[in-house]
Amino acid sequence: MNDSTRPPATAITTNITLRAGMEEPFAAWQSRFTHTATKAAGFLALDIAPAFAGSYDWRIIQRFRSPEALEGWRTSVLRAHLFAELAPMRDPAAAAFDDETVHSLDPLSCVTEVIMTVVEPGKEGVFRAWAETIQANQSNFPGYMGTLVQAPVSDEMQYWTTLVRFSTPAQLDAWLGCPARKQLLEQVEPHIARWKSYRMESPFAGWFPETGKRSPAAWKQSALVLLVLFPVVMLEIKFLSPLLAGRHVAIATFIANAISVSLVSWPLMKIAVLCMGWWLRPSPVRRWRREALGACTMLALYIIELAIFMLVF
């Protein structure tokens, strides 16, 4: 079967809510679940993450190479046994809201370390067992925000990909540099051919500096940038474009972009972040009320901006 006719990889998301105090048992369960899922036929990737730092709501995304492989995993005895183990850890009051659906990928409010590992031939079992151990350790580390594990996708790309997420760069660095992780890396070193890692951070990190809390969600960052950038561009069209009309389009565009970036970077984004900080990084207390109020506030500000420029232009 060639690439054009191969069925697309498919996945299922299991949404669960934990009981308070179940963090440590759930961390151990995650490592067992990861170990079992990665050995299943057709396994492609596993993504386990909370809704936000400190949340009891978690999603478990299980991706497989075909609908048939996914169905085999979904109905397997091993998976059923794992979820039976999980049952006492789940919040019975929230059971009605737990479900399983086709996954959707939403940007997480966190910083991610991408680790690519090439395992020595025949050592895959050793690597899986080691991955189970390190998963149990990192799941209990402060700021942990979930892990994605992806098996080699083809004969040409024989490396395992692991995405490790933490709330802040400082918390991620603390885990990456801790003695426990260094000891674990020394244990697995004889069984891997090579590995490398790199950091994935927010595209607007300079405008949303770390404050000891998690970074704002990517969509919130983009929404606030749009709120600030739109009036700058509209004012440039109204007042700057006529002044630059006689210049070459490349020069005029460069000047306009330079002014836009300067104004947005300082002071407009600093003011916007200060004013909307309660929504960008809401506390867990009454979080969803703040989220809804913030979204309505942003929508109202968009409407006000549009109304003003529709009247002026």
Q: What is the secondary structure topology, with strand pairs?
A:
Layout: E1 10-17, H1 23-39, E2 43-50, E3 57-64, H2 67-74, H3 77-86, E4 99-101, E5 111-119, H4 124-139, E6 144-150, E7 160-166, H5 169-176, H6 179-188, E8 192-200, H7 218-243, H8 249-275, H9 277-280, H10 287-312
CATH architecture of the largest domain: 2-Layer Sandwich
Q: Which residue ranges are poorly predicted, with pLDDT under 50 across at least 5 consecutive positions?
A: 1-7, 103-108
Instruction: Please give the alpha-carbon distance between the first and last residues.
Output: 58 Å
- Which whole number gives the mean pLDDT? 82
The Cα radius of gyration reads 24 Å
Q: Can you tell me the CATH class of the largest domain?
A: Alpha Beta
Integer tally of domains: 2
Keywords: Membrane, Transmembrane, Transmembrane helix
Protein name: Antibiotic biosynthesis monooxygenase
InterPro entries: ABM_predict (IPR038762), Dimeric_a/b-barrel (IPR011008)
Transmembrane segments: 223-245, 251-280, 292-312
